[in-house]
Amino acid sequence: MKHATPENEFARALLKGLSDSPKTAEAKWFYDAAGSALFERITELPEYYPTRTEIGILRDRLPEIAAHVPAGAALIEFGSGASVKTRVLLDGLDQLAAYVPIDISAQFLAETADGLRRDYPALTIHPVTGDFMTQLTLPPALDARPKVGFFPGSTIGNLDRDAAVALLAQARHWPDAAGFILGADLVKDADVLRAAYDDAQGVTAEFNRNLLHRANREAGADFDPDSFAHEARWNAAEARIEMHLVSRAAQRVQVAGQHIDFAEGETIHTENSRKYTAESLTDMAQAAGWRVADLLTDPQDYFAVALLKP
Ligand code: AVJ
User: Where is each Histidine-specific methyltransferase SAM-dependent domain found (predicted)?
Assistant: First the structure.
């Protein structure tokens, strides 16, 4: 064999995406420790409205959200929990019996669960380790409980439509599925959208380039990260922000023992962040067997928290 298969999953996935035309990388690879810290900084940027807008909706509309959650229910969160958003709900929904954070990192989950058990002694915490894009097994102790899914942050926007529908359908098929609370970013003025993904301080640019630093650290690559420019494009036809890393020159890069050639201006497409309308959200929910019982938005209509019912 000419090329040995790289032994780690990140290196394999990276090589595969870089052999595609156009070159791509999946957004989930942003989140090593450095990338997660950069994302936390993004959520505090003046241009990045989604996090603070969603928290505002959750706080302001707690009574309506509470009415959506049956007594004795389990709240099942996709992705990293223990954030401000989770706590807003746990503080406001005293009818909850259980909280189930699902995360890929067992270590992170264990720490989260300890903190939550301290702060919410009345709540049973059942952490589930796993990739929420795959079929998950819920703890049998939850069998009899009504289940409400929670997927905040518009992280659903990273998924293509089929994957998003599959995730929502999985929750719809839980025994005693009672509802779903979905955070989704909305289509708006293109300049507002672009600024949110290309901030003046350059934090998002560093977040994007961290993929190259990570490739150098973990995938035997020799990228010169400064030779790639950060670009955030609004793709109106697909209703999505795309992040790209644009090669500033023709160059050859080594990745896990193979070489990858870039033309000047050639890009690695590193993320899609889909933006929704009431129509496209309703359509996606319906395709997964849910109906939109309520669509809670902020006064500017920047962000939506959709309350889905079977
Ligand atoms: C975590 C996927 C919701 O799409 O807004 C932020 C990630 N990328 N800035 C988003 C992100 C660039 C974020 N999500």
Answer: 11-309
Do 179 and 307 form a contact (C-beta atoms < 8 A)? yes
Q: Among 36, 39, 209, 274, which is best to mutate for testing ligand 1, by the most ligand atoms less than 8 A from CB? A: 39
Residues comprising the chain, all counted: 310
Listed in sequence order, the DSSP H helices in the chain are 9-19, 33-42, 50-60, 62-66, 84-92, 106-119, 161-172, 190-196, 203-218, 278-287
- Name the residue of 41, 273, 303 to mutate for ligand 1: max ligand atoms within 8 A of Cβ: 273
**Ligand 1 neighbour 83 (Cβ under 6 A):** no
DSSP 8-state class, residue 6: P
Residue 35 near ligand 1, beta carbon < 6 Å: no
> Does residue 135 sit in helix, strand or coil?
coil
The Cα 50–Cα 72 span in angstroms is 30
Residue 58 Ramachandran class (φ > 0 left, ψ -120 to 50 alpha, else beta): alpha
Handedness of CA 139, 145, 146, 149 (dihedral sign): negative
130 C-alpha to ligand 1 centroid (Å): 21
**CA gap 191, 182 in Å, rounded:** 25
- Cα 90 to middle of ligand 1, angstroms: 24
Ligand 1, atom nearest to 273 Cα:
4
What is the pTM assigned to this prediction? 0.95
Percentage of residues of the chain with pLDDT beyond 90: 87
Inter-residue contact 225 to 209 (CB < 8 Å): yes
Confirm or reject: Cβ of 157 under 6 Å from ligand 1. Answer: yes
Token digits of residue 134: 């795959």
- pLDDT value of residue 84: 85
Tell me: ipTM over 0.95: yes
C-alpha to C-alpha distance for 163 and 292, rounded to whole angstroms:
19
